[in-house]
Design goal:
It is a single chain. By secondary structure, this protein is an alpha/beta fold. It has three domains: about 40 residues, no CATH class; about 45 residues; about 100 residues, Ribonuclease H-like superfamily/Ribonuclease H (Nucleotidyltransferase, domain 5, 2-Layer Sandwich). It is built from nine helices and five strands, in the order αααααβββαβααβα. Strands 3-2-1-4-5 form a five-stranded mixed sheet. A hairpin with a 2-residue loop joins β1 and β2. α3 crosses α5 and α4 packs across α5.
C-alpha cells in the first residue's frame, strides 16, 4: 500500500471499521482488502531540517557578511548539532551567499572645520569585552552600483555588535549603527573611528561624550590604526 493510500486510510478509519460488529477487526480488514498494520500508521514529521534552515536565515539577516564557517560556528554556539557540510548545503538550498565587502572606495572624507580627536589605543592593553569598540564604513558592489555598510566591532571579542546598510554614506547611517549597538550592549570605555566627516560630526561626537565614552580617532593617513576592523 502506498503512502498516499495509508494517509487516506487513517482519515477514513472511523467510517471503515465497526468496533461493535460481530466481525473481528482482522475479518473486516480482509473484507475491505486492506492490511491491518496500515490502520496504525501515523505520519512522522521531522522539523529538524526546517528549524536549522530557519536559524541559518536569521543569522544571515543579522550578519550578512558571515560565510558558511562563521554561520556553522554560530549554530554550534546556539546549540545546534550540525556539520559544516550540512550548513553549506542548506545555505545553497536557501540561495544565501555572504555579502562580500571590499574596501576600495574612499569612505573617509574629512571636513577641516570638524574637531579631530587623538588616537588613544597605541600601547593600550585590551583585555575585556566592551573596553574598546571600533567602527568603519565599507562599500558593497551590487548590480547597477553599490551600497554602503557601517559596522561596529568589539576589539576584544571580535564580535560584530551592530551593522546597517544604506545607499548613502552619511551621519544617519553611522548614527543608526551606533544607537543599535548602544541599546543592545554595555557601553564601551573607548570608541575608535577614522577622521571621516560622519564620525567627526557634532551629532556623533556629542552622543558619545554625553555617555562619558572616550573618543579615539585614527591618525590622518594611518589606515593601520583601525586594523582590527579591516581584518
Amino acid at each position: 500500500m502506498g503512502l498516499s493510500n495509508l494517509k487516506q486510510l487513517v482519515e477514513l478509519k472511523p467510517s471503515l471499521l465497526h468496533t461493535s460488529s460481530s466481525l473481528s477487526v482482522n475479518h473486516q480488514c480482509q473484507l475491505l482488502g486492506i492490511n491491518r498494520s496500515g490502520l496504525y500508521y501515523k505520519p512522522i514529521t521531522n522539523n529538524t531540517k526546517q528549524t536549522i534552515k530557519n536559524h541559518i536565515t536569521k543569522v544571515f539577516e543579522r550578519i550578512p557578511i558571515y560565510g558558511e564557517k562563521k554561520v556553522h560556528q554560530q549554530l554550534l554556539e546556539d546549540g545546534y548539532k550540525v556539520s559544516l557540510n550540512t550548513v553549506a548545503r542548506y545555505r545553497q538550498e536557501l540561495g544565501l551567499k555572504a555579502v562580500l565587502a571590499v574596501k576600495q572606495v574612499n569612505t573617509t572624507i574629512p571636513i577641516k572645520a570638524h574637531k579631530k580627536y587623538s588616537y588613544k589605543l597605541r600601547g593600550l592593553s585590551i583585555n575585556q569585552a566592551n573596553q574598546v569598540w571600533s567602527t568603519d564604513i565599507t562599500y558593497i558592489k551590487i548590480a547597477g552600483g553599490m551600497v554602503y555598510m557601517a559596522a561596529i566591532i568589539d576589539w576584544h571579542s571580535k564580535a560584530v555588535l551592530a551593522h546597517a546598510i544604506s545607499n548613502t554614506m552619511d551621519s544617519q547611517l553611522v548614527m543608526k549603527v551606533l544607537n543599535d549597538a548602544l541599546e543592545k550592549h554595555p557601553h564601551p570605555e573607548i570608541f575608535n573611528t577614522d577622521q571621516g566627516s560622519q564620525y567627526t560630526s557634532e551629532i556623533h561626537t556629542k552622543r558619545l561624550k554625553d555617555l562619558g565614552i572616550t573618543i579615539s580617532m585614527d591618525g590622518k593617513g594611518r589606515a593601520t590604526d583601525n586594523t582590527i576592523y579591516k581584518k
